[in-house]
Amino acid sequence: MGITILPFQMATKRFLWLISIVFAVILGFQYLELPYSNILFSLFSTNKIPTSESSTLQDEHALDVANKTRMSGEENITSNSEQKSGGPYANSPEIAPAYLNSPLSPITKMSPDIPTTVSSNDYKTSLSRNDDNILDNNSSVNSVPKENQGSLLPVPEVTTISEMNKLLLQSHASYRSMRPRWSSAVDQELLQARSKIENAPIVENDPNLYAPIFRNLSMFKRSYELMEETLKVYVYREGDKPILHSPYLVGVYASEGWFMKLIEADKRFVTEDPKMAHLFYLPFSSVMLVKTLYVPGSPSYDNLIQYLHDYVGMIAEKHPFWNRTGGADHFLVACQDWAPSETKLHMAKCIRALCNADVKNGFVFGKDVSLPETHVRYAGNPTGELGGNPASNRTTLAFFAGKLHGYLRPILLQQWANKDPDMKIFGKLPKSKGNKDYINHMKSSKYCLCAKGFEVNSPRVVEAIFYECVPVIISDNFVPPFFEVLNWESFAVFILEKDIPNLKLILLSIPEKRYLLLQKRLKKVQQHFLWHKNPIKYDVFHMILHSIWYNRVFSATTT
């Protein structure tokens, strides 16, 4: 008897053959890694989420490709004349040193707390080959998520210095504070100041300012002039000592105390009429807050947060100015490590000048300010010694000494302590009068390692500037001081935490000519980090005040 093949059976067989052919093609693409194979595969696996491991491998592959692509043109970059004007970040660098092309191996055995992925090609020193005649171009920004009012820009696990540059640029273009509930003449004055800064006349030379260390010298100079001409600050007098109006003037957190002392004695910027004020200062000490209220051994500092809540509530009840802007024109200056956490709830809309300027802990570009952590040993002489050996007499390649706070420093010592005579890496040094041993090491070293401790910030950054030892910042997600205006890559080196095993290779790959330029610029930036009992133009007091003013100008809105 013959077998009859029905039409629907033939159709079924054709359909099965078609499916078999399609899957064979897909498997062939996957196996041979042909172009667009991932796209084809994704059409049949839309419910699958990529693992972090696969994402990491793709990121690392992209990084390798980017570095290899850069190699060919790296050695043939010619010098250009220094850019004297342009956009807000005209002086931002985009020059990668030779070590970016070295086959650096990532850490394979590290603390699990250290991020092992990197989302950019960065640990650049961004120095030019020709001293004052340089064209530093900012890298292009394709698409950075726009920041909504009061929110944070999305950031990757590790935010490199070049990515921070992009976030800063985006925030100044998009971040705006809460609209005032009612109008005031000061709102228009801030908008007029912004326009004048954005259209600043070109500054070709200034005897007191060194152009290469600034993002845009013309804009900084105009902004500073307008601050001197316009800015008025109201200092709230309410509150009792020791937490309020009680500056703490010595130790590693002394920056907040010196600012408080000097602003409360100021006659130029401070006004007694709050209706004239562009900014309102909340004069509390984060150091004294902890010393006064924290119970040693307690797992919580909720009582410290409650104290600040009650203080703000008292200010808002007694004065109308907090409620007018939701606190957006109020600012605080706090250096103690816990300050970001203590202030992020009830003072979130304020401009916060913080030593612990951590991208991953709520630091908002365009609003918050990175406060320099200056270690003041003697209140009678806040600056102390300055300077160090000439570059030709700095015999140590790199130096670090300090307590083994946090996860990173033990790794630094494990990798480098007593391993190499060029790398003087220690734990805590024995006590010496005036900390002379520590200071002498800094004065005789080319590079001073500023490795994070419990938090991202370290007083070593400013100490290195004092002793003219080029700072090497090893602290992922740390926003360096005065980031709004200073071009940090022109006088410092940034190295990712994961690259600690390659420290010497990285530092040796920086040409001597480039190192000398780094150190020259470091000397020029020094004046902006010095405290004086009687503040002088462009010193650290005025730089802190300027960064707060600058961020307020660029975030202010009107009704």
UniProtKB/TrEMBL annotation:
Keywords on record: Glycosyltransferase, Golgi apparatus, Membrane, Signal-anchor, Transferase, Transmembrane, Transmembrane helix
Places the protein is found: Golgi apparatus membrane
GO cellular component: Golgi membrane
Membrane topology: Single-pass type II membrane protein
Disordered: annotated segments: 70-92, 126-151
Exostosin GT47 domain residues: 228-507
Pfam families: Exostosin_GT47
Compositional bias annotation for Polar residues: 75-84, 135-151
InterPro entries with a match to the protein in the record: Exostosin, Exostosin_GT47
Segments traversing the membrane: 15-32
Predominant subcellular localization, coarse grouping: Golgi
GO MF annotation, one: glycosyltransferase activity
Keyword Glycosyltransferase on entry: yes
Family assignment from sequence similarity: Belongs to the glycosyltransferase 47 family.
Name this polypeptide is given: Exostosin GT47 domain-containing protein
Native organism: Lupinus luteus (European yellow lupine)
